[in-house]
Specification:
This protein has about 100 residues and is mainly alpha-helical. Helices cover about 50% and strands about 10% of the residues. It has one domain.
Length: about 100
């Protein structure tokens, strides 16, 4: 996290932790410009990346790729179409914004 913190400079980042058993650490040193949000265990519906994966799967579900290369090309095409506003729409949640606003005050 130190590299991210240094790269952020005066900006702030929010990192959401899903508390999966494979994401546990004995200790975690969190810099001041990083805001951690810990979601309840076993709650993928609260994880923004899950909505992104759902979107990608919906774009690929009717594709019949005969090779891994074909799948890679199709996935590349889908990813190229994604705009920053689409990412924001897919991954934004009110509780993330609330965490940002409370940190800024």
């Amino acid at each position: 996290m130190e590299l991210l913190s240094a790269d952020l400079g005066d900006d702030i980042a929010v990192i959401q932790f899903d508390q999966g058993s494979f994401h546990k650490a004995k200790s975690l040193d969190i810099p001041d410009n990083i805001i951690p949000i810990f979601q309840p265990p076993h709650s993928p519906e609260l994880n923004p990346i899950e909505r992104f994966w759902e979107f990608l799967k919906s774009k690929l579900q009717w594709e019949n790729c005969k090779t891994l290369t074909q799948l890679q090309h199709k996935l590349t095409d889908v990813l190229k179409e994604i705009t920053p506003s689409m990412i924001a729409s897919l991954t934004s949640y009110d509780f993330i914004l609330e965490a940002l606003f409370s940190a800024a005050s």
